[in-house]
Amino acid sequence: MNRRTVYFVTSISLIEEFRISRTLRGAMCPAIWNAKLKEGQYPVIVFSHGLSANRSFYSSFCTEMASNGFIVAAVEHRDRSACASFILNEGGEKEFLYFKTLDPDTKEYELRNQQIKVRVEESIRTLDVLEKLNIGGLKDELESGFDLSQLVGRLDLSQVVMSGHSFGGGTTINTLAKDKRFKIGVALDPWLFPIKDDIEDIGPKVSQPLICISTERFQTKANLSAMNNLPEETANFVTIKGTVHQNQADTPFVLNYIGRVIGGTSSTLDPHVAMDINNNLALRFICKQLVTSKQESIAAAKRILEDNKNEIIYGLYSKL
Asked: 96 pairs with which residues across the strands?
């Protein structure tokens, strides 16, 4: 188990550390490591993680998108909003950046507003790197074993999707407003507190098609009010009944019942059903916007959403 996971475990509960560590060690992801690409080009999704998470926390979402023919670039932010991250120093050694806790003298808004600015720039730079990769101008210095050259000329960058969860959802909205190379947005339970003083200016600038997929128990009046600043013409809203904030991450699948209760990830809707609905809402929306046809993905998503229609509320919704 790597140091990122250890830090996350510790941040949840010292009492549960041993139990959760044992669970996480056996977690599996249904994917083929370093698989070769099929023929053709692939549309691209840039994904931004939530507060105290990291790039690996959303494999259930990201692998589902990848299995439907997308290249997914999951960013790990270096603004110290991740549970832990690392950089390689000049000697090739890892230098860890740990989650920044709030200082007594610092207001949370000031910290989160500073962090989201970094996050937006990192998301934009990720697209810069992908563009460079696509023309063969990127050297692989990580020695990961994956052949980056097979991606040269294979990325369809004409309709790049920006997506993210929570803090990453707010990052998504802010990035769409700033960089129009991103053509489609998928914000999972967007947390807009970090841009609460700027949303009246940022919201109307989001001219791209956007869907905000919310869980039932996360949203607040202030957050819903902030989402009202998004353009009616392009913004779409949907809520999944019986869900909590972490239903859009991997957390419910790697914690046992006690861990889910302590971690606030216990939902009345089955986590697998919740994830299926979440993923297919995103997939259907993205595929409908693409110029390149993905009718099979749309049809499959439509069937799943129809089977679970009683768990879905369309439009901006609140029980508050």
From this structure: 86
